[in-house]
Amino acid sequence: MTSDSTISTNPLVDTFTYRVDPFDADFKGQLSWDVLGKRILSAASLHADKRGFNSIVKDGTAYLWVLSRMVVEVNRWPRVGEQYSISTWVKTSYRFFSERCFALTDAQGHQVGQVLTIWAMINSLTRQPELLDHLFEHSISQYAAGPLTNTVERSRRLRANSTTPLMERPTYYSDIDTNGHVNSIRYIEYLLDAFPLSHYVSHQVSRLEMDYVAESYQGDTLKLYLDPPAADHPEGVAEMRKANANDEETVCCRCAVRFAPRHET
Amino acid sequence: MTSDSTISTNPLVDTFTYRVDPFDADFKGQLSWDVLGKRILSAASLHADKRGFNSIVKDGTAYLWVLSRMVVEVNRWPRVGEQYSISTWVKTSYRFFSERCFALTDAQGHQVGQVLTIWAMINSLTRQPELLDHLFEHSISQYAAGPLTNTVERSRRLRANSTTPLMERPTYYSDIDTNGHVNSIRYIEYLLDAFPLSHYVSHQVSRLEMDYVAESYQGDTLKLYLDPPAADHPEGVAEMRKANANDEETVCCRCAVRFAPRHET
Question: What distance in Å separates residue B1's CA from the closest CA in chain A?
Answer without folding.
Answer: 34
